[in-house]
């Protein structure tokens, strides 16, 4: 049975971009007669103002996007993430890293050369063979080779994890769990079959597939939706001041989000329920 989810990070209220992702995941679940869940991804607690999670749940309810099961909060699932990390360490797939970011950058320049100005800092494997008596600050997954995967919208995708990312963090130096580990554990435990989310998260998919394989977990199907851009051409986000959704006319906001997903114009229904019903039909017709 199809099981999808919307997993907002409660660093601020939903804006137009996050509504597009929420609506896409809800439509995909409804079009396939599946279940739709909401997971509050508050694993990075210091960035999540108190009460923002309830604001988001209230926004979703006003839009008629109500989950089929009670929401789950990542901040309450520490033991699940620790159990997964323990399994990876015991299998030799994860290890402690004692390096600071400055040390990693210096090692990268010594081993590879100057880092591209806007490129990702690829971990050069400085602690792969051990920390040489220094205490571990973070924990990393040992990666190798290329990950190939199929996106339902973007088509065939590929990334050489070792060359483009390196051994990535599972538990941070500040003691917080990394997004990659938390989302993989949660998707598996919630039985998620389909992940529908914004295209900005597509680059995370190879890391998550690598983790799924290391933990012997199933890999969901993926669909990454178009991004909503601000006037300056950058992704609309909370970080660049995206405004919270104006809910004085929820049906209108849903029609706008549907249009950004490429659906044909929806009728000017008075209620969110009527708008959503029309949107499900349009989504299903689009395949």
Q: Can you walk through the features of this model?
A:
- With 287 residues, the protein is α/β, with parallel strands linked by helices.
- Helix content is 35%, strand content 16%.
- The chain is built from nine helices and ten strands.
- It has helices at residues 16-31, 52-62, 78-90, 101-111, 161-164, 179-189, 205-214, 250-260, 272-285, and strands spanning 3-6, 35-40, 72-73, 94-97, 138-141, 146-151, 155-160, 169-171, 194-198, 221-225.
- The strands form four sheets. A three-stranded parallel β-sheet has the order 1-2-3. It has a three-stranded antiparallel β-sheet with strand order 4-5-8.
- The protein is elongated, with a radius of gyration of 20 Å.
- The protein starts with a strand and ends with a helix.
- The model has no long low-confidence stretch (mean pLDDT 93).
- GO terms for molecular function: ligase activity.
